[in-house]
Amino acid sequence: EKSGYDTFMEKEINDQPHAVADTLLGRTDAEGNLTLDELHIDVEELRAVTKIVIVACGTAAYAGMVAKYAIEHWTRIPVEVELAHEFRYRDPVIDERTLVVSISQSGETMDTLMAVRHAKELGARTVSICNTHGSTIPRESDAVLYTHAGPEIAVASTKAFLAQITASYILGLYLASLRGTSYGRDAAEVMAELQGIPAQIETVLAGMDRVKEIAYYMADSRSVLFLGRHVGYPVAMEGALKLKELAYIHAEGFAAGELKHGPIALIEPGQPVFVIVPSPGSEHGLHDKVVSNIQEIRARGARTLVIAEEGDEDVVPFADEVIRVPHTSPLLAPLLTVVPLQVFALHLSTAKGLDVDQPRNLAKSVTVE
Ligand code: BG6
């Protein structure tokens, strides 16, 4: 069942090209237009949506945070992302024109289910992005968009994360095409780029030998920090979560712009910091700003582990290690940049002799509140 891999986690990381490709499958017509008839929500209702609230827990919530950047950009609908257990117990501003999108691999996470029920009570339309057919959350939602990652066995989520981002992008592009808000690129163009992502993930996976070596010599690390900006920010938090879950190492993800407002005080000689660098082609000069951040922390002695696009030479003078990913448009980059962070956590956990598939104290699906 592990297809020759030592652990389910390693198998599932290597399954990711399929998870993305299968989630894209069958969602476009011959002309490349999105066809989401499976949603079964009235198109007029979708056109009338004034706000989207994404509710989820853990890795699924980070997929939601990534999705926010893309969905707002494409649809111009405000998107909030909230941890399901927080959403449920405050007094959220929700009405019939709010679309509440839950994201859950298992479809059984009680916190997320309670949030969906609460949203329905408040009159919202509910869509579930889910990996498990017939599970409770999609059954109780008005509509479902399944991710096709296949069964995920390892407790720490990997391929479901990529499939969740893919599915929420499909939803965002569909809403944008319904509303005619293409903002620069139309849905078919982005879908075509998404179709190329699986091959690019293969490229990333094929280059992971050095990441494994780094993980082995970092096995004694007590703390690892992760910096990212824009969509790289949730990726940084997901990278930190993987390391906590799998290797029991204190890890924290920060927005790179926040560094000077506090976290830079943590930097001391030898502190390892992963930095996810935006594409040199990113708008607003974000690439250069993050390169400056690398320079700042390096000057204070940090060990910089830099994830940067192929051909980005600006990072080289300030990087102790450069991990390369192929070029994508900025919003699609998380589908590539998270992969080395998953691989790093996997090997660090293995290097410490830990149970990669069943980390201590965790369950695959938490069915209590
Ligand atoms: C946690 C799992 O308990 O639940 C995480 O350990 C997962 O891996 C989170 O991301 C949410 O689970 P689900 O099934 O709702 O996506």
Structure description:
The protein is α/β, with parallel strands linked by helices and about 375 residues long. Helices cover about 45% and strands about 15% of the residues. The strands form 2 sheets. It has a 5-stranded parallel sheet with strand order 2-1-3-4-5, sandwiched between helices. It has a 5-stranded parallel sheet with strand order 7-6-8-9-10, with helices on both faces. The longest helix has 21 residues, at about 160-180. It is globular, with a radius of gyration of 20 Å. The two termini are about 30 Å apart. It binds 6-O-phosphono-beta-D-glucopyranose. 6-O-phosphono-beta-D-glucopyranose binds next to helix 4. Its main location: cytoplasm. It comes from Ornithinimicrobium pekingense. Its EC number is 2.6.1.16. This is Glutamine--fructose-6-phosphate aminotransferase [isomerizing].
Q: Over all CA atoms, what is the radius of gyration?
A: 20 Å
Instruction: Enumerate how many helices there are, as a single number.
Output: 14
Nearest-integer average pLDDT: 95
Helix content: 40-55%
The string of secondary-structure elements, in order, is HHHEHEHEHEHEHHHHEHEEHEEH
Q: Going across the biggest sheet, name each strand in turn.
A: 2-1-3-4-5
Ligand set: 6-O-phosphono-beta-D-glucopyranose
Largest sheet: 5 strands, parallel
The geometry reads as globular
Instruction: Calculate the terminal CA-CA distance, rounded to whole Å.
Output: 32 Å
Model regions low in confidence, pLDDT < 50 over at least 5 residues: none
* Portion in strands: 15-25%
* Class by alpha and beta content: alpha/beta
Got a strand count?
10
Subcellular location: Cytoplasm
Domain SIS: 42-181, 214-359
Protein name: Glutamine--fructose-6-phosphate aminotransferase [isomerizing]
Active site: 364 (for fru-6p isomerization activity)
